[in-house]
């Protein structure tokens, strides 16, 4: 039975109403049932389950196309298990790369803060060490560009 409004589903899934409409438009969900009197969308419990899964995939940065692939593989079940695993592992590798990049950025910021801390204290030796460490951190950032 279709009994959830788009507002209900938005609150429960964390996806905005425009995103829900877009996902229907591009075929990730739906077609969504309509109230016979008002014509407004009415989502079923199964729609909610699917949308919560899509919200998680979106949160990890998965593209619409990969979401489609994920759904197609999910529908195929065990026969697509290897493809599903590989899809998820590719995304896990991308997230690991993003984490490494963020750590490099964080390292640079901390080293620069240490340099300025040493400068504020007038500690020339600590400033020299911090300067070198900042340069090393900056080189790690260059790799990210």
Describe this structure as you would to a colleague.
Keywords: DNA-binding. It comes from Streptomyces tabacisoli. With 145 residues, the protein is mainly alpha-helical. It has two domains: 2-59, Multidrug-efflux Transporter Regulator, Chain: A, Domain 2; 92-144. It contains six helices and three strands. It has a three-stranded antiparallel sheet. A hairpin with a 6-residue loop joins strand 2 and strand 3. The longest helix is centred in the C-terminal third of the chain and has 41 residues, at 81-121. The chain is elongated, with a radius of gyration of 24 Å. The relative contact order is 0.08.
Write the layout of secondary structure elements.
Elements (H helix, E strand, L loop, with lengths): L1 E3 L1 H8 L3 H9 L7 E2 L6 E4 H15 L4 H13 L4 H41 L2 H21 L1
Antiparallel strand pairs: 1-3, 2-3
Helix pairs in contact: 4-5, 5-6
Pfam families: MerR_1
Keywords: DNA-binding
Organism: Streptomyces tabacisoli
């Amino acid at each position: 039975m279709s009994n959830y409004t788009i507002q209900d589903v938005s609150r429960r899934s964390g996806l905005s109403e425009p995103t829900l409409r877009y996902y229907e438009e591009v075929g990730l969900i739906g077609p969504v049932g309509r109230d016979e009197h008002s014509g407004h969308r009415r989502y079923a419990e199964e729609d909610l389950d699917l949308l919560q899964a899509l919200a998680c995939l979106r949160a990890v940065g998965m593209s619409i196309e990969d979401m489609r692939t994920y759904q197609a593989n999910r529908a195929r079940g065990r026969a697509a298990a290897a493809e599903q695993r590989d899809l998820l592992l590719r995304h896990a590798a991308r997230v690991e790369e993003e984490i490494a990049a963020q750590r490099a950025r964080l390292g640079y910021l901390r080293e620069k803060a240490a340099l300025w801390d040493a400068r504020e204290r007038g500690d020339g030796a600590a400033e020299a060490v911090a300067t070198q460490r900042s340069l090393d951190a900056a080189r790690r950032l260059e790799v990210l560009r």
